[in-house]
Amino acid sequence: MLMVYFISDFFEEQDCVLGMVGRPVSLPCFYPELSTFANFSVEWRRDDEVLLRAEWEEDGVVGEWSTESAAISADAALTGNLSLELPTVDPKEDQSYYSLFIISGENQSAPLCTVCLKIAASFSPPLLQREEAEREDETAFLCHSSGGFPEPAVYWLINDTEEPPEGSVRTLAASLPDSRLYNVTSHLMVNISKDSRVSCIIQNLSMNQTLTSTSYGVRGSPPVSRASKAMWIFSTALCVVVGVMVIAGVAYQIHLDRISKRKKDEYNRKHLKRGYKRRHLYREETVAMKPEPEETDV
User: Fold this and answer.
1) Number of other CB atoms surrounding residue 188 within 10 Å
2) pTM of the full predicted structure?
3) Would you say 41 and 147 are in contact if contact means Cβ atoms under 8 Å apart?
4) Phi/psi at 134 (nearest 5 deg)?
């Protein structure tokens, strides 16, 4: 008969294990007294669903069956390490509970280990845009973030401390059918001065993640913005200078090509003229050396 050593004294409530979507995770469970048992099996369950079942006899493991490619250590009976290894985490629920049971014959233990698994995925840094509203006395802001889990909390702040008026914020979080990850879009319509700072805050409570994006007013641009503007001006000026240098270089090369061609044409003309003179002198000398015909009396 299976003796149950663990009910409430052995179990201590633990904080949830954080599993990141798409990554492996290990759910810890250790029971050193397992080596004293013979001909038994263990089951890992999520709620009432059996994820893994492994059977042992005195000479070793008889068989192992699992879903979702879940696994435990092959020498678990010797080491007492019954931790459940999940190769990947999918966003099904925000939080799930996994329990391990020992079964011997018709006897089943109380949950030997109960582990809470909290599932999360990081959101992208929020993209914040300031837009002109239909009414001249209002300003519109659009904040978007994607790829996170579970559904986040979205906050707006004006000048770092003030909350927007009630009814000025509309937020929509949509879960993608394939991945179940969330995309969130929030709109703010508010009457503020043009130099006010507006911040959009995306908060993922499951992983204690807070992402903030701030839109600075006309006169309140931070040093980073000024540096970015200066860098843009410098890059533009550099491109202009390089362009002028390239054009000057091409023009100078064309000038050199023209000079070279003119010199080559002059050389060819002189060479042809000298050749003509030589041929003309040759003809005159030939004529001069040619004997005159003798006159004969008929």
Assistant:
1) 25
2) 0.61
3) no
4) -65, -35
